[in-house]
């Protein structure tokens, strides 16, 4: 038997607010898209409203672009409502809306953003089918003249990884997974070099409590509590070789959100320590472009008397922002903290020594 959403009448005619109205719309779509074919009288009884209010509900659905018709039910000869499941999503989208829905979705295929390529592709096909013929024609004309340039996925997550992780998050279920270290398991030598060379990497089997997933820069990450360590960890989805949902559940901390957890992170790394104030002076050569980007929620830019622009932010740890400073090169000067200044200087000296060594070997 179909699930009903019976409501008490609101006022003389059972008038519903917008939220309740959409609940009824969804329920009618679900029931009338299958074999139920509910009648006007049945819906009126289920919702606790008058038959006239049901008629008004159907008219409202038609205004939304949902195709609703009536059909004689074979079992009792009564007229029941029918929603065409293949057409009820069809709407007259504008070209701009279609670009946002179709071309942007299409652009992320084969990129790290498309964690579940199969779901992305099937979702894209559903959206395409919902477009009107005129809009579809315009979309075909734009297809070769619209692009979003993103990094391609050299090593995407394995099939079903994203779905299993989401199931664990939705149900607060503990996950068991095999996680691949970015370094080789062989002892001795450079671990990083061995990993790049294709040697076997260390695989660890762990039980984790999945809290949330997020995308940053070029990868998807899972924030989870590692049960054996009792600590929060960050896992890259592309390094998960196997994952499954267990029967064990876990309690989520009240009010926990990814935004709160990562609020001071530069990109992905969370730190339980207090955020560090970072001050970097940027040369006029790069400042114009730098101020156009939201690098961190706490950032401020101040133009100095010498023409440089001072960047200030309070961030979690220094590892990630150090590489940001190095990427800007000689157009960035660390003012504070002292530790960041010293780490950047040490990395520059190490790079210089490497170049000198290579030049010497070439002579």
Task: Tell me about this structure.
This protein is an alpha+beta fold. The protein folds into four domains: 18-83, Arc Repressor Mutant, subunit A; 95-142; 161-261, no CATH class; 276-352, Alpha-Beta Plaits. It contains twelve helices and eleven strands. It has helices spanning 18-32, 40-47, 51-63, 95-107, 117-129, 133-142, 161-171, 191-196, 258-261, 284-290, 319-328, 338-362; strands spanning 68-72, 79-83, 173-184, 201-216, 219-226, 231-236, 240-249, 276-282, 300-303, 309-315, 332-336. Strands 6-5-4-3-7 form a five-stranded antiparallel sheet. Strands 9-10-8-11 form a four-stranded antiparallel sheet. Helix 2 (40-47) crosses helix 3, helix 4 (95-107) packs antiparallel against helix 5 (117-129) and helix 11 packs across helix 12 (338-362). It is elongated, with a radius of gyration of 28 Å.
Largest sheet: 5 strands, antiparallel
In total, the number of domains comes to 4
Shape: elongated
SSE succession: HHHEEHHHHEHEEEEHEHEEHEH
Output mean pLDDT: 84
Secondary structure class reads alpha+beta
Oligomeric assembly: single chain
Distance between the termini: 84 Å
* Proportion of beta-strand residues: 15-25%
Total strands: the figure is 11
| Rg calc | 28 Å
Percentage of helical residues? 25-40%
Low-confidence stretches: 1-14
Strand order of the largest sheet: 6-5-4-3-7
């Amino acid at each position: 038997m179909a699930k009903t959403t019976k409501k008490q009448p609101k006022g003389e005619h059972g008038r519903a607010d917008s939220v309740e109205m959409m609940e009824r719309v969804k329920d009618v779509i679900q029931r009338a898209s299958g074999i139920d074919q509910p009648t006007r009288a049945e819906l009126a009884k289920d919702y606790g409203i008058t038959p006239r209010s049901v008629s008004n509900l159907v008219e409202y659905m038609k205004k939304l672009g949902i195709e609703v018709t009536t059909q004689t039910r074979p079992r009792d000869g009564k007229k029941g409502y029918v929603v065409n499941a293949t057409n009820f999503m069809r709407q007259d989208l504008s070209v701009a809306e279609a670009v946002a829905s179709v071309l942007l979705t299409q652009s992320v295929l084969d990129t790290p953003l498309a964690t579940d390529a199969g779901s992305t592709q099937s979702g894209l096909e559903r959206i395409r089918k919902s477009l009107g013929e005129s809009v579809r024609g315009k979309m075909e004309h734009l297809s070769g003249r619209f692009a979003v340039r993103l990094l391609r996925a050299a090593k995407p997550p394995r099939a079903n990884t994203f779905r299993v992780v989401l199931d664990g998050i939705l149900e607060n279920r503990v996950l068991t997974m095999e996680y691949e270290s970015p370094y080789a398991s062989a002892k001795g030598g450079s671990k990083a070099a061995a990993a790049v060379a294709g040697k076997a990497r260390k695989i660890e089997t762990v039980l984790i409590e999945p809290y949330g997933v997020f995308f940053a820069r070029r990868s998807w990450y899972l924030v989870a509590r590692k049960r054996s360590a009792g600590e929060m960890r960050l896992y890259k989805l592309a390094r998960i070789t196997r994952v499954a949902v267990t029967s064990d559940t876990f309690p989520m901390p009240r009010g926990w959100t990814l935004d709160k957890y990562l609020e001071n992170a530069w990109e992905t790394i969370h730190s339980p320590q207090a955020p560090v104030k970072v001050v970097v002076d940027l040369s006029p050569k790069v400042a114009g472009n730098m101020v156009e980007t939201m690098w961190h929620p706490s950032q401020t830019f101040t133009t100095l008397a010498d023409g440089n622009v001072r960047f200030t932010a309070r961030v979690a740890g220094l590892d990630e922002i150090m590489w940001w400073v190095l990427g800007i090169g000689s157009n960035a000067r660390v003012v504070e903290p002292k530790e960041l200044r010293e780490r950047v200087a040490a990395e520059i000296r190490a790079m210089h020594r490497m170049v000198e060594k290579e030049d010497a070997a070439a002579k």
